């Protein structure tokens, strides 16, 4: 199985780092067509995040595998609701960097492949797809209980990190708090972004 330390970069290059041990074993390559991911892409106003079916290619792994070598002061989070997950992006050029729970206690991050140039070959084909409603034309729900596999693998990674068998920590938190204050997007903005 191919394992690489994948380059992590924003579009303009001010945020740089790497993702340790990127492989199909250490994470899950998925496609997400949910309205929240689409709203995040609309907020960023960056081309190339969504595919032609409105999906975002994501690599789900442990935040402890992410290392920022420069530009960490440019990390910015948003939330789409008071209790929503944190969606991190580069404040310089608005490249999406990761979606994660609002607490470091649950070890999970979904890294949009827009921030991981050239890594797709190491990740294999997507093992699952997420949809807010019906599957868009040209897509299909995953076969072989794909979403169950995605959830089970995320739980195993979390447990392995908790007991010291996989990387711990998160570059997005310091002393249990986000390294930057999250911006809450209002319902009006979200409706505008989604065209509803």
- Order of adjacent strands in the largest pleated sheet: 9-4-3-10
CATH hierarchy, class: Mainly Beta
Total number of distinct structural domains: 1
Total number of strands: 13
CATH architecture: Beta Complex
Helical amount: 10-25%
Distance between the termini: 44 Å
Round the mean pLDDT to the nearest integer and report it: 85
Low-confidence segments, ≥5 residues, pLDDT <50? none
- Main sheet overview: 4 strands, mixed
Category from helices, strands and their pairing: alpha+beta
H/E element string? EEEHEEEEEEHEHEEEH
- β-strand percent reads 25-35%
Q: Shape, please?
A: globular
Radius of gyration: 16 Å
Number of helices: 4
CATH topology: Metal Binding Protein, Guanine Nucleotide Exchange Factor, Chain A
Give a brief rundown of this model.
With 196 residues, this protein is of the alpha+beta class. Helix content is 20%, strand content 30%.
Give structural attributes.
single chain, 196 residues, alpha+beta, Metal Binding Protein, Guanine Nucleotide Exchange Factor, Chain A, four-stranded mixed beta sheet, 4 helices, 13 strands, 20% helix
């Amino acid at each position: 199985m191919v394992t690489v330390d994948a380059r992590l970069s924003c579009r303009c290059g001010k945020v740089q780092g790497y993702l340790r041990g990127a492989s199909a074993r250490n994470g899950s390559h998925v496609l997400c067509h949910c309205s929240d991911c689409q709203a995040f892409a609309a907020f960023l106003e960056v081309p190339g995040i969504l595919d032609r079916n409105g999906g975002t290619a994501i690599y789900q792994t442990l935040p402890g595998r992410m290392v920022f070598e420069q530009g960490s002061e440019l990390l910015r989070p948003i939330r789409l609701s008071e209790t929503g997950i944190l969606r991190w992006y580069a404040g310089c050029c608005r490249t999406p960097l990761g979606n994660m729970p609002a607490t470091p206690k649950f070890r999970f991050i979904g890294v949009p492949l827009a921030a991981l140039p050239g890594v797709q070959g190491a990740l294999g084909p997507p093992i699952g797809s997420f949809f807010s409603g019906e599957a868009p034309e040209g897509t299909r729900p995953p076969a072989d209980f794909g979403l169950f596999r995605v959830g089970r693998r995320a739980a195993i990674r979390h447990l392995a990190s908790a007991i010291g068998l996989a990387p711990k920590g998160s570059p997005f938190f310091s002393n249990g708090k986000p390294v930057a204050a999250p911006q809450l997007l209002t319902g009006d903005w979200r409706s505008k972004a989604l065209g509803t």
